[in-house]
Amino acid sequence: MKVLITGSSGFIGAAVTRAVVAKGDEVRVLVRPTSNRSNLDGVPVEIVEGDLQDPHSLKKALTGCQGVYHVAAHYALWARDPTTFYTVNVEGTKHLFRAAEETGVERIVYTSTIGAIGLPRDRGLGHEELFPSESQLSGDYKRSKFLAEQAVLKMAQQGLPVVIVNPTAPVGERDIKPTPTGQIIVDFMKGRMFAYIETGMNLIDVDDVALGHVRAMERGRIGERYILGNQNLSLREVCQMLSQLTGVSAPRVRLPWKMIIPLAHMNTWLANHLTHKPPRIPLEGVRMAKYRMHYDCTKARKELDLPQTPVETALKKAVEWFHQYGYA
């Protein structure tokens, strides 16, 4: 099978690319001319240049492909120009999938986000049948990915052969940016975490996420969503695991969520109007911390046989990689 992978130079995309190559498929990757391609070093793939905003380049990249993994997204908790989230994540996805229909692609896996999964009001576990309330869409990234997923679900109802996967918070090697979750690990390693907010998250090894994509391509049901996650943890528990791995003391001070909000507003204002650099305390991240983002991953475990590598192992791989490449 010949497949096109978007976002292959990024964290999840690089892991997906390696997993698909290991499976034996013929792989073509779409990258922008300005992309950092270090994550593709040594990987036997065909590289084509293009852009999600250029339909002609998308049709050219898709020609001859039977499958598509659409992993590319603008993933950040802040952007100098918020419209970027919508032009890339929403309109770019529509461009790609229209081109896929026109070129006769037989199977698509779309990488959504856990932010498009709703959380129950009783602090129970989120699952694939839930969609987020307006208050849970805490920023432009989440909102844009939710709108993109809604468009994809509509296209699936109209016959697009797409399976949707919703990764939780992956950790592991090659987080070159790093992602917001990776930045937590780097900040911890540098001793920058003096306190913590008591929030919840679900962590998973990025290589397990990649295999979840492969198995969604092989056996996922068209039009269905699958949460790719593993262990539900509090941020305090994550810090304790990182302390055991690094020898850095875990923060002992717990700060109330409401105490951080004013600082996040100030940091974001400075980023928007003065520094034009990502804020140290991103407002969207603090707003997300209000929710205990714990999920039921049973569906992907049963239907996709999603691997469940111990989270401690995934964190160890991340710590070693960040140390090896000079992040901390």
CATH superfamily of the domain at 2-173 and 204-230 and 294-309: NAD(P)-binding Rossmann-like Domain
Count of distinct strands: 12
What is the third-level CATH name, the topology of the domain at 2-173 and 204-230 and 294-309?
A: Rossmann fold
Helical percentage: 40-55%
Provide the CATH architecture of the domain at 2-173 and 204-230 and 294-309.
3-Layer(aba) Sandwich
Structural class: alpha/beta
Instruction: Please tell me how large the radius of gyration is.
Output: 19 Å
Order of helices and strands: EHEEHEHEHEEHEEHEEHEHHHH
Count of DSSP-assigned helices: 11
Head-to-tail CA distance between termini: 40 Å
How would you describe the shape?
globular
- Mean pLDDT, to the nearest integer, reads 92
Major β-sheet profile: 7 strands, parallel
Report the uncertain regions: none
**Can you tell me the CATH class of the domain at 2-173 and 204-230 and 294-309?**
Alpha Beta
User: What portion of residues belong to β-strands?
Assistant: 15-25%
What order do the strands of the largest sheet run in, or round the barrel if closed?
Answer: 3-2-1-4-5-6-10
